[in-house]
Design goal:
CATH class of the domain at 89-266 in chain B: Mainly Alpha
Strand content of chain A: 15-25%
Structural class of chain B: mainly alpha
Shape of chain B: globular
Shape of chain A: globular
Helix content of chain A: 25-40%
Number of strands of chain B: 0
Structural class of chain A: alpha/beta
Largest sheet of chain B: none
Radius of gyration of chain A: 21 Å
Bound molecules: adenosine-5'-triphosphate, iron/sulfur cluster, magnesium ion
Number of helices of chain A: 12
Oligomer: heterodimer
CATH topology of the domain at 89-266 in chain B: MetI-like fold
Order of helices and strands of chain A: EEEHEEHEHHHHHEHEHEEHHEHEE
Largest sheet of chain A: 7 strands, mixed
Order of helices and strands of chain B: HHHHHHHHHHHHH
Distance between the termini of chain A: 52 Å
Largest interface: A-B, 28 and 23 residues
Strand content of chain B: under 5%
CATH superfamily of the domain at 89-266 in chain B: MetI-like
CATH architecture of the domain at 89-266 in chain B: Orthogonal Bundle
Strand order of the largest sheet of chain A: 6-7-8-3-9-10-11
């Protein structure tokens, strides 16, 4: 609490949505920290609650059918219980967000430059329109948009996908936020520019000192820039580790599956391990105990109780996981043909 | 833009020719449509009728008759069969009445349609929205002749709050002009207000879940700014183009019922009378005038649309 390096402290965050099909427990008790300047990745498959977690921090999931528990302290403000006008001063100014689809995320009938100017002027009432316009152009040039002065007058549909996402990044960084939330920022883009955008994002955040929460379903994308990784499954964090720990000593069987399904250039198609078999868990009626149990080839009796997110490797280590297996068992089980992956009955390596 | 103008002018000419031929032919096919009989009067002899037929050119082949009528329309000398008035002068006399009706009503229905639609969307599902929904249903299903007649009777005749009908020139008596038009404006607007507020409500509710609205919130804009600058700005685009077309049809004679109920001598009423009298020249001119207004205004609508939505190219 008193650590000055600590930027964000999320504790037991829970988010439920009342729907016709029942109560969706989208986020079921998530705790993590983000330090200043740190890049934290949240990975997990579709529906695991990554976006809901990220958007809840900015209050963007608030609606009549949503309910929240737990806390998220950011620079001394409690975000979950914050009033709308308090949040509004934080949004865009202290925490900025960029989204998956840069085409639909920009207003189609407003010039790109104007959209950045709007962002600057919501939080800086003193700045003139002209000065804000100049800043917008500088920012656009800085994120690598060529001929920024002319391009500021263009509309989003006149930009390519990569340029639109750069414009979103320029807008997000325009008020020098201390936290940038990027929700699948490259998923909608061409593979060729994905890596480029990610490394530019990393560089810009290093320059501005902004911390990043990078949401992705692709471990390959986060591998380049994340300091730490949170693996989410069924609304819970199932593993939390530094990037190296996660890649070289993964503890949770679900993480093994994720690692096994990363495309690797040094292996051809037939040798790749299959993606994890089975369906993501229901969030209305989640499986009892470990959420991964129905898909886990190593499940045993104890798994009907919920495993805590604990440090099981060494006392006090920051590497946490939610699996009842012992570290020795894990070491033995996770290797398939010398590669880390989730072995199962269906695992066939040609 | 240049290509757009050329294309529009060409299609306007095409539409006008097609409409005039079509209207002309319809009147040839109508039973009892022989204008010579009516021009000659009840007591005319066969020779008189023949003479009229000859002087008016009704004995010529139909395409000659058509071409001659068109020629007269374009040099402005076309006269009606019934009273022998110059048709274009008649229209020029009636147009200010219709324009006054259309401009006032158009403004009212656009403004109230936007206000009610926006309120309804903003309060979607709450009592205000439900109330407005019921009101707009009533508005949409209320026939103008009924609403107009009720208004004219109670507000006009019985309570004497407003004059029940007739037109007063704006240049002669501005206050009288306003007084005489308030009820017609209202009667004509009710249907459109109902339609526009429904259309706007559903457009807003469609747009409100769009990604750029989420971006606008994430920027720290207030809910009001998000709604006005982003949601409403995008949702008004279809409403504006709808308005252009409805306005055109009212100017082009589409307000017949309102004009009749309030005894406004406008283009619509002139059209109704001409059709009743099977007066081909008048009907032709009015139809072509109406078509021309619609085509012209829809071209303007397209230009405005392209200005409002940069994704549209002319
Ligand atoms: N407003 C809402 N109302 C009801 N359910 C919701 C709502 N928002 C999200 N959910 C549900 O919460 C769950 C988690 O969604 P979330 O968007 O966080 O997943 P995600 O991990 O980001 O997946 P993806 O990779 O598909 O983006 C999903 O099952 C989703 O259907
Ligand atoms: S707790 Fe049990 S079911 Fe869950 S991942 Fe570990 S072994 Fe598999
Ligand atoms: Mg998501």
């Amino acid at each position: 609490m008193s650590d000055p390096e600590r930027l964000l402290e999320v504790r037991d965050l829970r988010v439920c949505f009342q729907t016709e099909g029942g109560v969706v427990k989208a986020v079921g008790g998530v705790s993590f920290d983000v330090d200043r300047g740190e890049v934290v990745a949240i990975v997990g498959e579709s529906g695991s609650g990554k976006s809901v977690t990220a958007m809840t921090l900015m209050g963007l999931t608030r609606s009549a059918n949503a309910s929240f528990q737990g806390s998220a302290r950011f620079e001394g403000t409690e975000l979950i219980a914050a009033r709308e006008d308090q949040l509004r001063r934080i949004r865009g100014a202290r925490i900025a967000m960029i989204f998956q689809d840069p085409m639909s995320s920009l207003n189609p009938v407003q010039r790109v430059g104007e959209q950045i100017v709007e962002q600057i002027r919501v939080h800086d009432h003193a700045i003139s329109k002209r000065a804000a316009g100049e800043r917008a152009i500088t920012l656009m040039a800085r994120v690598g948009i060529p001929q920024a002065r002319e391009r500021a007058r263009s509309y989003p549909h006149e930009f390519s996908g990569g340029m639109r996402q750069r414009a979103m990044i320029a807008m997000a960084l325009s008020c020098s936020p201390s936290l940038l939330i990027a929700d699948e920022p490259t998923t909608a883009l061409d593979v060729t520019i994905q890596a480029q955008i990610i490394s530019e994002l990393k560089q810009l955040c290093e320059e501005t000192g902004a911390a990043v929460i990078l949401v992705s379903h692709d471990l390959g994308v986060v591998a380049d820039i994340a300091d730490r990784v949170l693996v989410m499954y069924g609304g819970r964090i199932v593993e939390q580790a530094t990037l190296d720990e996660l890649f070289y000593d993964p503890q949770h069987p679900y993480t093994w599956g994720l690692l096994g399904s990363i495309a690797r250039l040094d292996r051809d198609r037939t040798q790749r391990l299959p993606a994890i078999a089975g369906m993501p868990p229901s969030l209305v009626n989640p499986p009892e105990g470990c959420h991964f149990r129905p898909r886990c080839p190593h499940a045993f009796e104890r798994c009907t109780q919920v495993p805590g997110l604990d440090s099981r490797l060494a006392q006090g280590s920051g590497h946490l996981d939610r699996c009842w297996l012992s570290p020795e068992q894990k070491r033995k089980l996770r290797s398939v043909e010398g590669v880390i992956g989730l072995a199962s009955d269906e695992t066939v390596i040609a | 833009m240049g290509r757009f103008v050329v294309r529009r002018v060409a299609s306007t000419i095409g539409v006008l020719i097609a409409i005039s031929i079509f209207t002309f032919l319809i009147f040839q096919a109508i039973p009892n449509g022989d204008p010579a009989l009516r021009l000659a009067g009840r007591t005319a002899t066969q020779t008189q009728i023949e003479a009229i037929r000859h002087t008016w050119g009704f004995d010529k082949p139909i395409y000659i008759q058509y071409l001659r009528t068109m020629e007269k329309i374009f040099d402005g000398s076309v006269v009606s069969y019934n009273q022998g008035f110059n048709v274009e002068e008649e229209i020029r006399r009636d147009l200010p009445v219709t324009a006054s009706l259309a401009l006032g009503a158009g403004f009212i229905w656009l403004a109230l349609g936007i206000v009610f639609g926006a309120l309804s969307a903003w309060r979607a599902g709450r009592w205000l929205d439900r109330g407005l929904t019921v009101l707009s249903m009533i508005g949409v299903s209320m026939p103008v002749f009924f609403l107009g007649a009720v208004l004219a009777y109670y507000v006009g005749d019985k309570w004497g709050v407003l004059p029940p009908g007739d037109y007063v020139k704006l240049t002669e008596d501005p206050w009288g002009w306003l007084e005489h038009l308030v009820m017609p404006w209202f009667a004509l607007s009710v249907l459109f207000i109902g339609v526009y507020s429904r259309v706007l409500r559903s457009t807003i509710l469609d747009n409100i879940n769009d990604d750029y609205v989420r971006t606008a919130r994430a920027k720290g804009l207030s809910e009001r700014q998000v709604m006005i600058r982003h949601v409403l700005r995008n949702s008004l685009i279809p409403i504006i183009s709808l308005w252009g077309l409805d306005f055109a049809s009212v100017i082009g004679g589409g307000a017949i019922l309102t004009e009749s109920v309030f005894n406004l001598h406008g283009v619509g009423q002139y059209a109704a009378q001409s059709v009743q009298a099977l007066d081909i020249p008048s009907v032709l001119v009015i139809t072509m005038f109406g078509a021309f207004t619609v085509v012209l205004l829809s071209a303007i609508v397209d230009v405005v649309y392209a200005a409002l939505d940069p994704r549209i190219r002319l």
